[in-house]
Design a protein that fits this description.
single chain, 255 residues, TIM Barrel, eight-stranded parallel beta barrel, 12 helices, globular
């Protein structure tokens, strides 16, 4: 049985005081049910947020990491650093990392392996651009991205991976993918995992949808048997909005 997972990606937002205020409000409003809730703050907030997450039963996630455990890599954060702070999850391959920092498929593959070496669970982000979608290349793009990220892993590791399908054109646009399109992408991703590993492994992997998710549309996505949660950007920055989203997702899951 796959446990649904909702992850908040705060990107480069919030100060320590703002994060503390958010979590103080959120923990008193949310009804998560059996859904796993992950908070992914900027690196500077991980230490402060870690204690608050433990108190609230939330999981802590990071937004990125380097692939080496230590070394002369000024400005980078290692998997070992994250594990030391109590981080459970780490976002890898987000489209903003690919776009703004030229991360390659090889970079992402190395990071995924390094995450497992430090006992972190990767949330691997995949998604097509608008021109790729118009060209009918969605399935080819997301399957290629995921196949590369999972290369050389063993089945027990792949079962732990969370896959976030985030069409690039939907992120921050206010124009989410239609449920049927998101469901089809999830099916294509499961098909690729099944071919690369096995159908049993494919059935165990959790797949999120991300891209303009909000409290009003989360129930629709959670209604799909192939979608196991969401990676939430803008709607996760406000405590009331994110609490409403998580509670709505929990209600949909209970049906």
């Amino acid at each position: 049985m796959r446990v649904p997972i909702i992850a908040a990606n705060w990107k480069m937002y919030k100060t320590t005081a703002e994060a503390q205020d958010f979590l103080g409000k959120f923990s008193g409003m949310v009804t998560a049910g059996k859904i796993e809730v992950v908070i992914c703050p900027p690196f500077t907030l991980l230490c402060a947020v870690a204690a608050l997450c433990r108190q609230s039963g939330l999981k802590l996630g990071a937004q990125n990491m380097f692939w080496e455990m230590s070394g002369p890599y000024t400005g980078e954060v290692s998997p070992r650093h994250l594990a030391d702070l109590g981080v459970h999850y780490v976002l890898l391959g987000h489209s903003e990392r690919r776009q703004h920092f030229d991360e390659t498929e090889e970079d992402i593959s190395r990071k995924v392996k390094a995450a497992f070496a430090a006992d972190l669970t990767p949330i691997v982000c995949v998604g097509e651009s608008w021109p790729e979608r118009l060209a009918g290349q969605t399935a080819n793009v997301v399957q290629r991205q995921l196949a590369s990220a999972l290369r050389d892993l063993d089945p027990s590791q792949v079962r732990r991976v969370v896959v976030a399908y985030e069409p690039v054109w939907a992120i921050g646009s206010g124009l989410p993918a239609a449920r049927n399109d998101a469901e089809q992408a999830a099916l294509e991703l499961r098909r690729q995992i099944g071919e690369q590993f096995s159908l049993k492994v494919a059935r165990d992997v959790r797949i999120q949808y991300g891209g303009s998710v909000n409290p009003e549309n989360i129930r629709e996505f959670m209604g799909s048997p192939e979608i196991d949660g969401a990676l939430v950007g803008g709607a996760s920055l406000n405590a009331e909005s994110f609490a409403a989203l998580v509670s709505s997702a929990a209600q949909a899951e209970a049906l």
